[in-house]
Write a structure and sequence with these properties.
The protein is mainly alpha-helical. Among the domains are: about 100 residues; about 60 residues, no CATH class; about 70 residues, no CATH class. The strands form four sheets. A four-stranded mixed β-sheet has the order 8-5-11-10, covered by helices on one side. Strands 7-6-9 form a three-stranded antiparallel β-sheet, with no helix packed on it. α23 packs parallel to α25. The radius of gyration is 33 Å and the shape is elongated. It comes from Nicrophorus vespilloides. Belongs to the proteasome subunit S2 family. Keywords: Coiled coil, Proteasome, Repeat. This is 26S proteasome non-ATPase regulatory subunit 2.
């Protein structure tokens, strides 16, 4: 039986040429004959005609122009003719044509860098006349040539300039940026930028800066800042200066600009970033600008927003728990609350503080009922219950100190400690000329009572977070030097870290390192509090990359596991938000390396007994693997591609990692999605919250609260109610569920913990520090949050900010304008004027913005000073605006 060939046979087709194509072929052949012919007088006209035909040929975007296609067989012929030419001018003309022909593969055997070679032998004039594709081809070959031989750079100088000039004049500025970055000559771009293209170039370079090394990044930002300054876009220039930590540039803007409304907008951005700027003494409206930067009106503006949204009525913890909605008729969670009422009362204190944060009134601790509620708590629970008053009166320095003052005279040390911590929380992110926090807390940092001393020190850290005040730092350094226990030392280090975050303060760093080295042989080094102490040291270097190197060398003197844990913590802080791929690779390597504490064969036999004898508050060697896991989430923070890759890595780590590693995975996931409750993230964390390992489950539940912080997300709230039923008999897990419910409804849905602001352009390191304290504490939850140090959760106050859009006029009076709100779209490098938001809804300000959302003005009546619409925005009415019916 004959077999049937089912594969299609290749049928060779000869291309049928039209009459026009045949005429073109004949004409080209005639011109080639003249070029290689014996008459030298015909060569020049023939080359001119050939050049004309190539330049004027029309074709589709996806096919080779016909003259080039038909000239391909004569490529070698032209090269031979070029070699025999004597006339220099004619020879250069011929080289130009050969250079263009070299773009097309000749029979599959293209000679490398042939286009560039003949371009250099040609006229090297008006290379853009051959088209965009030719210029791009030449740029590619220039890059290859410079990689092979850096010495040829001088010969290519003029050609590089021509390519960049052509790109910038013909809407190819993005291509020019890529070309110059590849050959490391971005500085050449500046002379070709103009008012029409600089914004597009600066936006593109800003996005590129995330993916280059530190030196190149600084060069890019410097160029961007200079362009914005040149074209008087001072707000954008200030944002770049904040990226580079160049406060002198911002001070120059305050001196240079005479526009009062613009300076007010800049002051609001500095206030949101907690940036200390020294204003000129002769500056007009200096006091008003200082008040804005000190967040003096933050409380009043927040209350105005609350009244506008009609959410002033206080909420109780029961309003948050919504036990009646829990999906079971048995209500086992109520039974659990009766079983462990002290822990549940403690949870309610936190929930009450989180939900009513900043509103100035609540149903538990304010007024006459406050005393009764505080005494319903036990031991350190009274401290946290009293401290919750600070959250309720958050930012209200003038009115919030009076309700707290009466507890400062309590005979109970824990209640007095809670009042001191509350004083610090009230002043958090707000600076007041009277310095009430310093005046009230300074007297207690040397108190005999450890609880009072710790609360006063931490209160100072929260009150002056990000200020880098010398007088406050000096007081805290004394607290470090006088510390007698690991707990006192850790609290003082955290406070210094909060005050001097991202400053590389040498005096503070030396004080902490000196104490650490002095205690190297001390029994206190075994305490898990030493991890928090080094975390405070790391806060000094948040986002400072290589600045941590000397400190890392200093901790080499410690034995394992301290050496590995301390170095991991320092690298986590120094590279937070940088997206550094090499650091991520190093952290992945550390995750798989178990720290071996056993030095001989005999001790290996007793490994299990040693592990079982580890005390509750003793440092765990597993932290050396857990901290790099959390570091993965911190390093990739704020960069979409890095965040996506990190989530995939964490999936594998959570599946195959050691118990200590798995404990950190939910926290790392949360760091990538703070106040951003995307469904896939919620589903992953919900799975972890049912884990058989209690510590993993507790951390996953807390991570759900961080992910949904201040969003009022309905799906997440329902998930937490289900978890309350599931963990009804587990006191630790149920406590975490209640904390997460409070965080989800933070400020009744008006506050956020996200460290990213100004349309995700800036990263607030003080907010990062506020998040890292409970995150690191939860790597050993029973030693801190689930033990006697739950008050560390109040460090989140340093990261709480309203997620609002408020519009003010030039006189800082509230003005309501229509705005379009939608999901932000990345438009970097896109042609034309693409839409920057999708899923648009129109609202009237003030409005609440979710993480990842962007707003645009829906009216032409006003113009905004800031590059983005979020936070507090100053608007100016257009003088030429005319209302229409």
């Amino acid at each position: 039986m004959a077999t049937v060939d089912v594969l299609p046979r290749k049928v060779e087709k000869t291309e049928e040429l039209s009459e026009e194509d045949k005429e073109l072929q004949d004409e080209l052949k005639t011109l080639i004959d003249k070029i290689v012919g014996a008459d030298p007088h015909l060569v020049h006209p023939a080359l001119e005609m050939l050049k004309f035909l190539i330049r004027t040929s029309t074709t589709s975007m996806t096919s080779v122009p016909k003259p080039l296609k038909y000239l391909a067989p004569y490529y070698e012929t032209l090269k031979e003719a070029h070699g025999k030419m004597v006339n220099v001018a004619v020879k250069k003309q011929c080289a130009d044509i050969i250079s263009v022909l070299a773009m097309c593969p000749m029979g599959g055997t293209e000679t490398p860098l042939e286009s560039l070679k003949y371009c250099m032998l040609g006229t090297m004039q008006n290379i853009g006349d051959w088209g965009h594709e030719y210029v791009h081809h030449i740029e590619t070959q220039i890059v290859e040539q410079l990689l092979r031989c850096q010495k040829s750079e001088e010969k290519l100088e003029n050609l590089i300039e021509d390519c960049v000039r052509f790109d910038c004049e013909h809407h190819g500025e993005i291509q020019a940026c890529d070309f110059l970055m590849e050959i490391d000559h971005l500085e050449k771009l500046e002379k070709y930028l103009n008012a029409g293209i600089y914004q597009r170039v600066c936006m593109y370079l800003t996005s590129c800066a995330k993916y280059v090394d530190e030196i190149e990044c600084e060069k890019i930002y410097k160029l961007i800042g200079e362009q914005y300054f040149k074209y008087e876009e001072y707000i954008r220039a200030a944002i770049i200066a904040i990226h580079l930590n160049k406060r002198n540039v911002i001070e120059d803007i305050f001196r240079t600009s005479k526009d009062g409304a613009l300076l007010r907008q800049l002051a609001f951005i500095c206030g949101r970033h907690l940036l200390n700027v020294t204003l000129p003494d002769d500056l007009e409206d200096r006091d008003e600008l200082m008040n804005i930067m000190n967040n003096g009106n933050l409380s009043s503006q927040f209350l105005t927003l609350a009244r506008e949204l009609d959410i002033m009525d206080p909420k109780s913890p029961e309003d948050v728990y919504k036990v009646w909605l829990e999906p079971t008729p048995m209500r086992p969670s109520i039974l659990a609350e009766n079983i462990d009422s002290a822990r549940q009362n403690l949870a309610s204190s936190f929930v009450n503080g989180f939900v009513n944060a900043g509103f100035g009134n609540d149903k538990l601790v304010s007024g006459d009922s406050g005393n009764r509620w505080i005494y319903r708590n036990k031991e350190n629970g009274m401290l946290s219950a009293t401290a919750s008053l600070g959250l309720v009166h958050l930012w209200d320095v003038d009115g919030g100190l009076t309700p707290i003052d009466k507890y400062l005279y309590s005979n109970d040390e824990l209640i007095k400690s809670g009042a001191l911590l509350a004083l610090g929380i009230v002043n958090c992110r707000v600076r007041n000329e009277c310095d009430p926090a310093l005046a009230l807390l300074a007297d207690f940092i040397s108190d005999k009572s450890s609880a009072i001393r710790n609360s006063a020190v931490l209160g100072l850290g929260l009150a002056y977070v990000g200020t880098d005040r010398q007088d406050v730092t000096s007081l805290l350094i004394v607290a470090v030097e006088n510390a007698t226990t690991a707990e006192n030392f850790a609290t003082a280090c955290l406070a210094i870290g909060l005050v001097c975050a991202n400053t590389c303060n040498a005096e503070a760093s030396n004080a902490i390192l000196t104490k650490l080295v002095d205690w190297r042989e001390n029994e206190q080094m075994k305490s898990t509090h030493m991890v928090l102490a080094v975390l405070g040291l790391g806060f000094l270097y948040l986002g400072r990359k290589d600045a941590i190197d000397a400190t890392c060398e200093a901790v080499e003197v410690f034995e394992e596991p301290h050496n590995a844990i301390f170095k991991s913590l320092l690298h986590l802080c120094a590279y937070t938000g940088t997206g550094d791929v090499f650091i991520i690779q190093e952290m992945l390597s550390n995750i798989g390396d178990r720290v071996n504490l056993l030095k001989d064969e005999e001790s290996k036999l007793d490994a299990s007994s040693i592990k079982s004898e580890r005390k509750k508050n003793e440092i765990d060697s597993g932290l050396a693997q857990a901290i790099p896991v959390l570091g993965l989430g911190c390093v990739s923070l704020g960069e979409d591609m890095g965040t996506e890759m990190c989530s995939k890595i964490l999936g594998s780590v959570g599946r195959y990692g050691d118990p200590a590693v798995r404990r950190a995975v939910p926290l790392a996931i949360a760091m990538n999605s703070v106040s951003k409750p995307h469904l896939p993230v919620i589903e992953v964390l919900t799975k972890y919250s049912h884990d058989s390992d209690e510590k993993v489950a507790c951390n996953a539940i807390f991570a759900l609260g961080i992910v949904g912080a201040g969003t009022n997300n309905a799906r997440l709230a329902a998930t937490l109610r289900q978890l309350a039923v599931y963990h009804a008999r587990n006191a630790a897990e149920l406590f975490m569920v209640r904390i997460s419910q409070g965080l989800t409804h933070l400020g009744k849905g008006t506050l956020s913990l996200s460290p990213l602001h100004t349309d995700r352009l800036l990263l607030d390191y003080c907010s990062i520090a506020a998040l890292l304290i409970p995150m690191i504490s939860l790597l050993d939850p029973h030693a801190f949050i689930l033990g006697q140090h739950h008050y560390l959760l109040y460090s989140l106050a340093a990261g709480m900010t309203p997620r609002w859009l408020i519009t003010l006029d030039e006189n800082l009076e509230h003005v309501s304008v229509p705005v379009r709100v939608g999901q932000a779209v990345d438009v970097v490098g896109k042609a034309g004027t693409p839409k920057t938001i999708v899923g648009i809804h129109t609202h009237t300000t003030p409005v609440l913005l979710a993480c990842g959302e962007r707003a645009e003005l829906a009216t032409e009546q006003y113009e905004a000073f800031g590059p983005t619409l979020d936070g507090i925005c100053v608007l100016r009415k257009r003088p030429d605006y005319m209302e229409t019916d």
